[in-house]
Write a structure and sequence with these properties.
The chain is α+β, with helices and mostly antiparallel strands and 340 residues long. It has two domains: 243 residues, QueA-like; 77 residues, Thrombin, subunit H (Beta Barrel). The chain is 19% helix and 29% strand. The radius of gyration is 20 Å and the shape is globular.
């Protein structure tokens, strides 16, 4: 199992720059991996024909917050701060987009919000301390921040386009993109069919999307991400599992949460940091199927998909999608890996 096994060439014209509207009119590649690989080309609204009463859909209700802050140094120069992870009190881990930075540097964002670089953690990541009380920081960030769309999207998106219709708990620096395809109408239609909808929270961090560089992929380590599962939700999912009903994760974020919070095949409730890395050879404990987008080459996310369908099959799936001109990445089309 080599890093090159998860590489592929994608024409730039297939990188989606804006979402399809209505959201559930994007294309859907249905993947079945029984004795042989079967691919069906549909639209996302066709999910109603593939899900049945008793199936459990698990969605990530995290909410993207405008974590890209453009500030000014005390010298007058501009500087970009990207909020990554809240630490103790008013301190955050941040990416700093400037070549000239030093401990003690004051950065002003306007609206009374400023802060100071406290400590260098890595080449680009610093510890940053805000000047405001903890309960005021997020409201001020909402005023001065920008939507953190990925670098392959050339224009900043309107925040509603980069937010799921069920987003509730603020804390992600990137959207759980598989969930972007759902509309309230589609969710209600699935509920009427008897599909069980459950919500969990994983706050997406930038580390999720980083390219894996280690030739031995088992040496790669993911950044930790915050997850939350309440007891009633865990109980309902465990009951469904006991009854041999299908548990289908919406997005790799939901899948990572379910697997990371599993102990002896039982989903645990609680709040904690997780950094599970799933790649081929992994034995799934909770999840049977996955709804997901098409991911970047050599990313941990395509490795996760390969853990479900196999290394050779994931290449076949991606090549079929490229041949049929599916749209890729955050605003792109989706695939449904059906439970066997």
């Amino acid at each position: 199992m080599k890093l090159a096994d998860f590489d592929y060439f994608l024409p730039k014209k297939l990188i989606a720059q804006s979402p399809v509207k209505p959201r559930d009119y994007c294309r859907l590649l249905v993947v079945r991996n029984d004795k042989k690989l079967i691919l069906e080309h549909r639209h996302f609204y066709d999910l109603v024909n593939y899900l049945k009463a008793g199936d459990v859909l698990v969605l990530n209700q995290t909410k993207v917050f405008p974590c890209r802050l453009m500030g000014k140094k005390s010298t007058g120069g501009k500087i970009e701060i990207f909020l990554l992870k809240q630490q103790q009190g008013t301190e955050w881990e941040v990416l700093v987009g400037s070549h000239r930075k030093q401990v003690g540097q004051i950065i002003n964002f306007g609206h009374g919000l400023s802060g100071q670089l406290i400590k260098k953690l890595t080449e680009k990541i610093w510890l940053f301390k805000f000047n405001q009380a903890q309960n005021k920081i997020m409201s001020l960030v909402a005023k001065v921040g920008q939507t953190p769309t990925p670098p392959y999207i050339k224009q900043l998106a309107a925040l509603p386009d980069y937010q799921t219709v069920f987003a509730r708990n603020s804390g992600s620096v990137a959207a759980p993109t598989a969930g972007l395809h759902f509309t309230k109408k589609l969710l209600n239609q699935l509920k009427r069919q008897g599909v069980q909808i459950e919500y969990v929270t994983l706050h997406v961090g930038l580390g999720t999307f980083q390219e894996v560089t280690a030739e031995d992929i088992t040496k790669h380590h993911l950044h930790s991400e915050w997850v939350e599962v309440d007891k009633p939700t865990a109980d309902r999912i465990n009951l469904a599992k006991k009854q041999h009903r299908r548990i289908i994760a919406v997005g790799t974020t939901s899948l990572r949460l379910l697997e990371a919070m599993s102990v002896n095949g039982q989903l645990q409730f609680g709040k904690q940091w997780v950094n599970i890395f799933i790649y081929p050879g992994y034995k799934f404990k909770i999840v049977n199927g996955l709804i997901t987008n098409f991911h970047l080459p050599k990313s941990s996310l395509i490795m996760l998909v390969a853990a479900l369908v196999g290394i050779k099959n994931v290449q076949k799936v991606y090549q079929a999608a490229i041949k049929k001109k599916y749209r890729f990445y955050s605003f792109g089309d989706a695939m449904f890996i059906q439970p066997s």
